[in-house]
Amino acid sequence: MLILLLACASDTPVWALQQASVLPSDNGFTGTQAWAFFADGWTPEAGADGYLCTRAQTLTGATTTVADCADCRVAYTLEVEELGTDCEGDIATADAYAGPAIYAIAEVPEALADGDPHPGDSFGWFVAWGEGEELSALGWAYPEDLDLTGEEGLPGWSADRVYTLYPALAWDIQ
User: Fold this and answer.
1) How many CA atoms lie within 13 A of 64 on its CB side?
2) Of 155, 145, 33, 149, whose CA–CA distance to 97 is shortest?
3) Which residues lie closer than 8 Å to 111 by C-beta, 6 or more apart?
4) What is the SS3 assignment for the chain?
5) How far is CA 69 from its chain centroid?
6) pLDDT tens digits, residue range 104-117?
7) Distance from C-alpha of 73 to C-alpha of 155, rounded to nearest angstrom
8) pTM of the model as a whole
9) What's the domain count of the chain?
């Protein structure tokens, strides 16, 4: 699986992975989002080695329109609430992990196609970190049952079906 690395400035070397699980409805969605944090030296191949803690959040999304996403299947403005954490210090409370302002679901971007966990059944997962900001590809969105059964499900993005939003990148927050 392809994992892209992005660098941000911080004094402590730590990796962060963001993923979510959402249940669409006719006019929005509900779900959860988790940030998993890993120690310096962690690599995607290391799996749980280097795991530090997790910050969990609830998500509520309301459908919206995004001007710079002509091929969006759907876009949502988000409300993020803290659910709980086993993290300590700044990671436990930093606003940087309060979540993005918008999720959008569109075609898988070409740059992420090689790492697609379910080619043909996945969508691209895009985020904007603030209202009016440009969308960035974050990973893939696919029906959760594909991970459980490995079988193709119903095509499309539909209400009342749980979707996994899986990251294509880890955030280097050192």
Assistant:
1) 19
2) 33
3) 137
4) CCCEEEECCCCCCEEEEEEEEEEECCCEEEEEEEEEEEECCCCHHHCCCCEEEEEEEEEEEEEECCCCCCCCCEEEEEEEEEEEECCCCHHHHCHHHCCCCEEEEECCCHHHHHHCCCCCCCEEEEEECCCCCCCEEEEEEEECHHHHHCCCCCCCCCCCCCEEEEECEEEECC
5) 17
6) 999 999 999 999 99
7) 12
8) 0.85
9) 1
Whole-Å CA distances, 15 to 20, 39, 43, 77: 17, 6, 9, 26
Q: Can you tell me the distance from the alpha carbon of 161 to that of 19, in angstroms, rounded to the nearest whole number? A: 17
Give per-residue pLDDT as tens, 90-140: 888 888 888 789 999 999 999 999 999 999 889 999 999 888 889 999 999
Record the tokens describing residue 53, joined without a space: 């803690």
- Give the domain extent around 115: 4-147+156-172
